Every structure is written in C-alpha cells, then in structure tokens.
Amino acid sequence: RFTKVGFAGESCPRHILPSPWAVTRLPSEQVIVTQSRTVDEWLPTVEKFLNMLYFHYLQVNPKERRVILCEHMLTTKSFRMAVAKILFDKLLVSSIYCAPGSALPLYTTGLSNGLIVDIAHTECRILPVFEGTPLRNAFRSISTGSLHIDKRLRSLLQESNQMESVSDEILEDIKVRTCFATRPSIESQLNGDLNRVQTYNDGPHSLQVSYRTRFTAPEVLFLNGSEGESIAEAILESLLRTDCDARSAICSNVVLCGGGSMLPGFQSRLMEDIHTLLKLDRYNGLNGLQDILRVASVVFPANSLCWIGGAILGSLDGLASCSINRELFTESKGQVMDIDNLQYTDFLSL
User: Fold this and answer.
1) How far is 67 from 94, CA to CA, in rounded Å?
2) E strands, the chain, in order
3) Burial code of 150-159, b = ≥16 C-beta within 10 A, e = fewer?
4) Has residue 287 got a pLDDT over 50?
5) Beta strands 205-210 and 197-202: pairing type?
6) For 48-85, how does the pLDDT look when each residue is reduced to its tens digit (9 = 90+)?
7) Rg (CA), the chain
8) What is the pLDDT of residue 55?
C-alpha cells in the first residue's frame, strides 16, 4: 500500500508514500507487484516513481548510493527486472541488493531465528527463519489484512449511521482511534454496554461508533480467509512444514509486524487462538511448543519493522560483496535477478 524510503543506519524512513501499484478498494483497478505483467508494461510506472523518489523526496545523486530493495517474497521477476533496469540503465546506481522483506524484521531483534508474522494491508505473510535462512518452503500468505477491517468497519458504520459512504481518511482514523481485538465471549459479559456509543466528529457530520462496532470490525482478522485458514491456523501450518529440530528456536522469537498487528489486544487474542488450536489432533506434533511460544519485544513501530531491518542491513560492511552490480546485471542479461539466483540464504549473517 505504501512505499517507505530513506537511508541506511537511520531509525525511521524519510518518507512514506502511496505506492502507484497499491491495491485499491476496486478489484478492477488492482495493480500489485505479484501481478503478471511484462517488463515493458512495468517500466513507465516504475521509472516515474523512482525519479520522484530520488530527485523530489530524497534529493540525492543515485550514482553515489547503493540500493537495498525490500521486496515481497512473491514479487514477480518482471517487476524486479523493471526496477533493476531503471536503477542501472537510467539512474546509474552502483549496486542493488534484493532482500526478502518478510524476513527483515528479524534484524530488529538481534537474533537469527524467528517466526515473522506480517499483518499487511491486503494479506498476512508468515515466514520462519532458521539460522539466518528464510525457509521458503514454509512461507504462507493468506488474504487477511487491514483492508478487510476497513471493509467491515465501513459496512457497520454505514448501517448504524444510515450513510451512503464513509471516506477512507475518516475510516482509517476511526479504526486507529477506536478499534480493538478481544475474545468473542466478551459479548456475554458486556450485556447493555454493547450499544454504548462514542461520537466521532467530522466537521459538520458526527458518526456514532458503538462498542459492538469497535471490536466486531477487527474480528475479521481471526476468521478464515478465502484460503480457508485463519491467521492462527496459517502460523501452525507453517510450523508443520519446518524441521522439527528447528521449531523450538523459531517459536521462541515470534515477531509481529505490519500495521494490523498494532491493533490493541491483537497479540493476546492471536496467542489465545493458537493455544486453542494446539489442542486439536491435527497439531499433536506441535504440542510441545505451547510453553515455548514467545512474542518478541521490539522497540520500533511494528508498521516500519521491514524498513528498519533493511536500514540495519544496509549499514553492514558485508553487504557490498553480496550485492548485484551493473556489470553483473549486464553480463547475465538480467538473469541474475531471478529469485533462484538471489542470495537469500543466510543473509542475516552479513
């Protein structure tokens, strides 16, 4: 949804901008980096965006800066190639390092083992990392994210306030200010408090946000997505695909990141759901992990952990030897940008 840009070694991005390929609310207008498009189709959009980043926002000479691309695990080769062609051929950068964005938050913990749970805008991404190596065979992605909270919240507000529409800005503000995650059983405990309302003033208009709306909208994060899995189930399915000898080290350092994970009560509700599922026969092989599961305490904002991990990576001396330079890119005719050729293995040991 957003692109974060800045410099290595800094604790926060310089700028956070809407991505031109971000998913909108209209399916017919969706353009995402995992979508199948040719390199030539990507080039105009990518060139315009990168020029804007370098010369308008960052105001630096591209030739003097190496680039770290924090990318989606399912990014297509055509998109990666388009970015590389613009950076090397037009902007003349010295080198590029493609890092798996889903694994970068682990840098903020200082450990080489962990389970990354990224609650993004349109999806939840789960990636185990063992001894610095992302376990791609256990990577899971389910279509449950903050966008689904927005859709549910918009529907509830329109119904309760008898409105035809609610703007995205107001919706985001209400979600951040009022929504929280809790147990489903809370309805039986609150009784009359469910219909207690909180007034949200928007200029000439006032919206009534009931207590029920505040915790009902985020409940979509804990229901089964279109893949038939909830976030808790996807986490356990990912662990089932990891080697049994690596599970204890991975589970002792669970990193929650992405804007969706910043919802009050999200962590405790997710862990409660996981412990409930562990009692099922399907997950008997994971029973020993009940007392080991620990959520890492991270001092940085959860919605910037991927970028901060990239900033830490960019400040390391060993990165230059692993990066792709212009000569290598030209000699390989771009084949070096194929995911099978990228040095994802043990990238945390740089």
Assistant:
1) 8
2) 2-5, 15-18, 67-71, 95-100, 114-119, 124-130, 133-134, 140-142, 197-202, 205-210, 254-257, 324-325
3) bebbbebbee
4) yes
5) antiparallel
6) 999 999 999 999 999 999 999 998 888 888 898 999 99
7) 21
8) 95
Q: Is 61 left (phi over 0), alpha (psi -120 to 50) or beta?
A: beta
Question: Whole-angstrom Cα distance, residue 234 to residue 232?
Answer: 5
The C-alpha angle 250, 256, 261, rounded to 5 degrees, equals 155
Cα separations in angstroms, 54 against 81, 169, 195: 19, 27, 50
**Amino acid in the structure at residue 99:** A
Q: Which residues is 116 bridged to in the sheet?
A: 127, 255
CB atoms within 10 A of CB 130: 20
Cα distance between residue 162 and residue 151, in whole Å: 16
E strand residue ranges, 106-168 = 114-119, 124-130, 133-134, 140-142
Say how far residue 95 (Cα) sits from the centre of its chain.
25
Q: How far is CA 16 from CA 248, 259, 261, 295, 313, in A?
A: 36, 13, 19, 27, 19
Q: Could you report how far apart the first and last alpha carbons of the chain are, in Å? A: 29
Instruction: Count CA atoms within 13 Å of residue 264 on its CB side.
Output: 8
The residue assigned the tokens 């989606």 is: 72
Nearest-10 Cα torsion for 274, 214, 32, 254: -30
Contact 212, 250 (CB under 8 A): no
pTM of the predicted model, to two decimals?
0.86
Give tens-digit pLDDT for 179-213. Answer: 999 886 665 566 556 566 777 766 666 788 888 88
Closest CA to 235 of 121, 115, 107, 105: 115
Helix (H, G, I), strand (E, B) or coil at 340: helix
- Count, residues in the chain: 350
